[in-house]
Amino acid sequence: MLAVNYSTIRNNLKNYCDLVTENCETVIVTRKDEKNVVMISLDKYNNMLENLFIMSDKVNYERLLESKEQFDKHQGITKTTEELEALANE
């Protein structure tokens, strides 16, 4: 995470945009009176929104945690492509 003042960003906007999008860097644009702004890539922003959505539904989030726990304990079930297609057609 970088903190850069507004004037520096203004004079080097393309470079900082490239840094954010190509290197997954987060840039804090510092401004007077602590009215700072955060620059992140659209991909990172969309990922944050998706995570907030998933975590906002308690039932869905708990199910996700259970699934992760099962995966970590190697308790998953293996299905072939044909088995998955058959389940989808039921």
UniProtKB/TrEMBL annotation:
Signal peptide: none annotated. Pfam families: PhdYeFM_antitox. Gene3D superfamilies: 1.10.1220.170, YefM-like domain. Coiled coil: none annotated. Antitoxin component of a type II toxin-antitoxin (TA) system. Belongs to the phD/YefM antitoxin family. This is Antitoxin. It comes from Aminipila butyrica.
